[in-house]
Amino acid sequence: MSKKVGIARAHTNIALIKYWGKRDKDLFLPMNSSLSLTLDAFYTDTKVVFDDALTADAFFLNGQKQSEKENKKISQFLNLFREYTGERRFACVESLNFVPTAAGLASSASAFAALALATATALDLDLSREELSTFARQGSGSSTRSLFGGFVEWDMGTGTADSMAHPIDDADWDIGMIVLAVDTGKKKIASREGMEHTVQTSPFYPMWVETAARDLQDIKDAIAQRDFERVGQLTEHNGMKMHATTLSANPPFTYWTADSLRAQEAVRQVRMDLNLPAYMTMDAGPNVKVLCRASDMDYLVAALKEYLQAEQILTSLPGCGAYVLLETDWQESERSFSRGVEHD
User: What are the chain's domains?
Assistant: First the structure.
């Protein structure tokens, strides 16, 4: 019996210029281009084994066999590669998520980026990372950006062949991020559901698309100039605009909780008290992310502990792009997970 094996790690990313809404739900083509920062603190390791002995695909997350619904989602994703290569075998997919799942911390981004690279490795595909991102995109839109490190743009493109990610900047100029994990439970409204409802019902949505395009160009200019404060201001404004579209949907909804609002107020207060640049953003979840200078993180964390519990405050530096792991790396990840190193 022959097997083909691929193992990969991908880090999460946090969008600074948000992707919110699809123009094609099947191909995951976004309504607007986006830009993110890859983080080194949160990641997913995935092992893919194509095996003659298997009679169906199987998916295990954090050591637990997943539901038929989740298994089907993985099978559909693997089919993209099977159709591309002519591979006929089924696969066993094992993932270890070193990031809280479905809590607005981009676990799906790292998950599908790792799955895409592991699958491509198992099948010996010679694809550029940009090309691979067009596959990853069809599992999770934001996963396109987790194939790269630092600041990354996902270009909306004109169709499925050119809607892809590419790196913008290594973010090696004193960039950091603080995550205020006020609630790492599963969110009540999935991102895909929230996006679709917003696109269909929010009167603010057309203006979101128009202004997001301007924000993207402005933040790319600011990154090129290494103008941290301008990058932060654009990040905070763009994130708040995205959430304004959910509040204007019909019926309105929000990913914010009372704890989210308290965390936001804590950031504003600390920013004022310390007179340090620190800028908020939030994805489709209750947790607050704070873009800051890496050299300021210790001061900001100490001040934020006056408002939040220490275990709710997580820090990260910029992360690298996805990369291939060896079997020994996978074994170490399994040992780390079993020791409770994961953030879940």
Answer: 3-172+323-338 (3.30.230.10), 175-316 (3.30.70.890)
